[in-house]
Design a protein that fits this description.
This protein is mainly alpha-helical. The protein contains 24 helices and five strands. Helix content is 54%, strand content 5%.
Length: 612
């Protein structure tokens, strides 16, 4: 059974009957009748399961509430749009794995069922909300995967861990990001969960499942090797701790489950991993070059690890999670400075102003308590502490590995942070066990509820809320965010199509060495005459709108950009403007004067929904 700790543990061995729904949920077997419990210990166990079930149900509800609604409120990030355009290539049968600038295709394949079950008939019909449904579902799936490790945690640890994952601002924000990070976290935890089930049962099927998840990790991101290294370190440390403590990390029953692992089972793991990865990279055995590239890519990715413009200090991720004056944003300052104490309301998110702070320091402190608890507490009769000890070591190891790499973006930390959030649940349950008496537990429960509520409030404000900081540059999770100016211009392009009389046949030619992202997502679906891959100079004279990177502007025909010293009274054929894509990207926009004049003549225009 999966949730077996409380129904068969030492304090509950005379625990005959509990409410049926609780026994079924946590793995016990009972009749539908509810019989009087035979001891105070058994009643305490039943009460703990009741509380845990209530927390779990609340966690699922909150996770859904924070993740599903209003997914199109934020402009598409550059990384989201590159994945979206790759999806279009896959659906058109033109996808080629790019080992230099892109990752594996699992996100693209995972999007296909969403398209099949939606109203979208073609790639152009897909909306931002539909694309972001994919990471949302995987984010919700992390709560479901907790079922795999249910008997490695107590019911309270499981419930509080689920709640921490459900309300964490980082987990919520990037569950609504159409990038592969949430899939990577899901597959990693699936590997850990299957590994745990194999550890207890020694059934080869669980080893095959672990291999499938490992293959999916490799087909998602090449950084899976970092997770593999941290997992290996966690296994070694837990094994050594168990060796030197004479197996004190396991309860009586589980000590008898140390059957040797068979070579055939290890082979099954490796074969499942390789077959899964090869099938996905090769587009189901049709592109063997991509399989080779999926391995050769590690040489090119070594340069990226140095930063490539995204280099940060070792403490960047710690500052991002801690928040406040230690946050990754501008301002600096430490805990012991006067700024820290003056900004306490801002730090706790009560009165955000100026530099907005989304720190999760309270959950981080709970995670620290959980890691200590994992190694200082002894297991009950049928409970193993090996899982929580492994998660503690794994989470710290992968966090340190990512911190040591110069290349850093905020979404990369959600993998390490997910493990720490489960440890925060262990810490919360440990604090509940420390207090005695009904009143003490009530006070501690209220305090922990406030911690979770605070995190949920920050998550809500970071994604929706009034005011919403989903598209606010002061939100540190909005890393290199798409400028609102970009969506304003996308709306203008639609208006140009109307006033020109050409409709969606409006000719837009783009010349930008960086691709002009995120415009290819917004324009290529609606304007078939939008040329953006390389820029076709032959079409310049026929274009209605020209988008030029600053490195290409001087190469434009003089008839477009105008002479360096225009003649007095000369009529301009084009109007020039500037379009800000994101903090590091800007384009020059040239619009035919006749179209611009017609656009101004019909102003003001009613608001238009660019995203759906």
């Amino acid at each position: 059974m999966i949730f077996g700790n409380l129904t068969e543990c030492e304090i509950c061995r005379d625990y005959k009957e509990v409410p049926a729904i609780l026994r079924c949920f946590f793995g016990g077997r009972t009749s539908l009748a509810t019989v009087k419990l035979s001891s105070p210990e058994a009643r305490a166990g039943a009460h703990e399961m009741t509380r845990a079930l209530m927390i779990l149900v609340t966690a699922f509800i909150l996770a859904a509430f924070l993740r599903f609604p209003d997914r199109a409120d934020r402009p598409m990030h550059v990384d989201e749009t590159t994945q979206a355009v790759k999806l279009g290539e896959l659906m058109a049968g033109q996808y080629k794995y790019d080992p230099i600038d892109h990752h594996g295709p699992t996100l693209l394949y995972a999007t296909l069922p969403v398209k099949w079950f939606s109203s979208a008939r073609t790639w152009s019909d897909l909306t931002e909300s539909q694309l972001r449904l994919v990471p949302v579902l995987f984010g919700m799936g992390l709560l479901v995967l907790l079922l795999l490790v249910g008997d490695g945690l107590t019911a309270s640890e499981l419930a509080w861990g689920a709640m921490a994952v459900a309300v964490s601002p980082l987990m919520v924000f990037y569950s609504r990001y159409y990038i592969m990070e949430m899939l990577m976290v899901f597959f990693t935890f699936g590997l850990i969960g299957c590994g745990w089930r194999f550890y207890l049962s020694r059934q080869t099927g669980w080893m095959v499942g672990a291999g499938v998840f490992a293959g999916l990790m490799h087909a998602t991101k090449e950084t899976c090797v970092l997770q593999f290294a941290a997992i290996s370190l966690g296994l070694v440390v837990v094994w050594m701790a168990d060796l030197f403590s004479a197996g004190s990390g396991m309860g009586v029953v589980n000590r008898g489950r140390k059957n040797p692992i068979k070579k055939a089972q290890i082979l099954a793991l490796l074969v499942a991993a390789v077959v899964t990865s090869v099938l996905i990279f090769s587009k189901f055995l049709t592109d063997w070059r991509a399989v080779y590239d999926s391995v050769a890519t590690y040489w090119s990715k070594l340069d990226r690890a140095q930063g490539q413009g995204h280099q940060k200090t070792f403490f960047y991720y710690l500052g991002l999670i801690w928040g406040g004056p230690m946050s990754a944003g501008p301002g600096g300052g430490g805990v012991f400075t006067g700024e820290f104490w003056k900004n306490l309301p801002e730090i706790f998110g009560i009165k955000p102003s100026g530099r907005i702070v989304w720190g999760e320091r309270l959950l981080l402190l709970l995670a620290g308590v959980g890691m200590i608890t994992a190694f200082v507490t002894q297991p009950s009769r049928n409970q193993s502490r090996h899982l929580v000890r492994f998660l503690a070591v794994y989470s710290v190891a992968i966090f340190m590995i990512y911190s040591a790499i110069s290349y850093k973006t905020p979404w990369l930390v959600i993998g390490p942070w997910h493990g720490m959030l489960i440890m925060a649940g262990v810490g919360a349950a440990g604090l509940m066990r420390l207090v005695e008496g009904r009143m003490g537990r009530l006070v501690m429960g209220c305090a922990l509820t406030l911690v979770m509520a605070h995190a949920g409030l920050l998550a809500y404000r970071a994604t929706r809320g009034k005011p919403s900081f989903a598209a606010d540059g002061r939100n540190p999770m909005n890393y290199s965010m798409t400028s609102p100016d970009c969506l304003d211009w996308v709306e203008k392009f639609h208006r140009f199509a109307e006033v020109s009389g050409k409709g969606n046949q409006l000719a837009i030619v783009q010349a930008d060495s960086q691709g002009g992202w995120p415009l290819p997502w917004y324009l290529s679906r609606k304007f078939p005459n939008y040329v953006w891959q390389g820029g076709d100079w032959a079409l310049m004279e026929q274009a209605d709108v020209i988008l030029s990177g600053m490195d290409f502007r001087a190469s434009l025909p003089e008839s477009v950009r105008g002479p360096t010293q225009p003649a007095e009274g000369a009529e301009k054929a084009w109007e020039e403007f500037s379009l800000t894509l994101h903090p590091s990207g800007r384009l020059a926009v040239f619009v035919r004067k006749s179209i611009w004049t017609a656009y101004l003549a019909k102003s003001p225009w009613p608001a238009m929904a660019v995203q759906q």
